[in-house]
Amino acid sequence: MSQPLKIHYFDNNATTRIAPEVADAMIPFLREFWGNPSSAYGFGAQVNRHVENAREKVAALIHADPKEITFTSCGTESNNSAIHSALLTTGKNHVITTAVEHSANINFGEHLKKQGYDVTFLPVEGDGSLDLHRLEQAIRPDTAIVSVMYANNETGVIFPIEEVAAICRSRGVLCHTDAVQVPGKLPIDVKQLGVDFLSLSAHKLHAPKGIGMLYVKRRTRYQPYVIGGHQERGRRGGTEGVPNIVAFGRAAELAMSTLEDENTRVRGLRDRLENHVLRQIPNTIRNGAKKPRLPNTTNIAFDFVEAEAVLLLLDQIGICASSGSACTTGSLDPSHVLSAMGISPMRARGSIRFSLGIYNTEEDVDYLIQHLPPIIQKLRDISPLNPDHPDNDQYDIVGARSKHEQEMALGKDTH
Ligand SMILES: *Cc1c(COP(=O)(O)O)cnc(C)c1O
């Protein structure tokens, strides 16, 4: 907490900085307007008007009707809720999703399997794209729902949701998309997409953590996942998180106005970073298709290094990036997304995701591309994975010297 180090943040797919405008919008609901929006007296009803106002703004972001928006606690809850509802309302027992979903879906799918449901995790191609033919073949008479993410959080690869939804419609199967990575980066129009359910999470669009929403298309049958009071028109029990809901509304408004910046300036920063790394650092390769891809994300494999070691050294100089998703950090398994793309475990373990956002500057990218090459070089010099590496009994000595050099390179006082 007391670190004076300036943060250079390249992990916007994990979470985003709260926009100052969003924080400002929340304050009155933390300090003065703390009434319960379900209370009948004016002090509550007044708060309720702001909840409904936020609902209109979130609806506008995805071209939905406010009645189609249910606030939840997070993107994970929204995803779980959509699938849960589809299973209950259809009485069917088969779910189709993909092998590259966020752990919100992967682990919920595994959980459902243990409960006796049947879950198909569709494979992807080497570039992370989806073969729609395989989707068509996977749909069965007992399929309740198809849940396919709109854009991948690790590679940025975008799936053709409009086509996925059309296939589902033609087969009479419900369709959900996890669009958590999309707002502010691509326009979202649920009518054009034709999905029945869509999930968002506010902390990926410059609002606080702990608030998400599920779009449920008009006339789609729905069974709540969180059961309790009659909040959210009976679709989600629990007293509304008013400050967070208000924040989500403000962030939704802002996301529409930052689309342009994400797709021009931020995309330019991402491309500069990616091109520089791929050209200047040997034995690097981009994971996933170049397009269609989110404008802010690049995932790069650095052969002969462990991503965790790179991230540690980057962390020491104030650079935040990640390997895989935040939800899998700490596990030694390579990313399930990269594995599903057929990338070898060794290459996957040397892969790093850089995800940019509207608060990134040219200076951030300059700083990163200045510091990254020597870090990779130092780690490769001591890496037993490196085919050029000297034999094993020299390893300790070389390793020790390199560690010293590393610290010198990082500007650390090594006495
Ligand atoms: C972050 C993320 C989620 C989870 O959202 P939470 O609000 O953190 O639960 C789900 N899907 C994707 C694609 C994400 O990036």
Throw out a few tags for this protein.
415 residues, alpha/beta, Aspartate Aminotransferase, domain 2, seven-stranded mixed sheet, three-stranded antiparallel sheet, 14 helices, binds pyridoxal-5'-phosphate
Detailed description of the structure:
- By secondary structure, the protein is α/β, with parallel strands linked by helices.
- It is built from 14 helices and twelve strands.
- Helix content is about 45%, strand content about 15%.
- It folds into two domains: about 20-255, Aspartate Aminotransferase, domain 2; about 260-410, Aspartate Aminotransferase, domain 1.
- The structure holds pyridoxal-5'-phosphate.
- Pyridoxal-5'-phosphate binds near residues 102, 149, 153, 180 and 203.
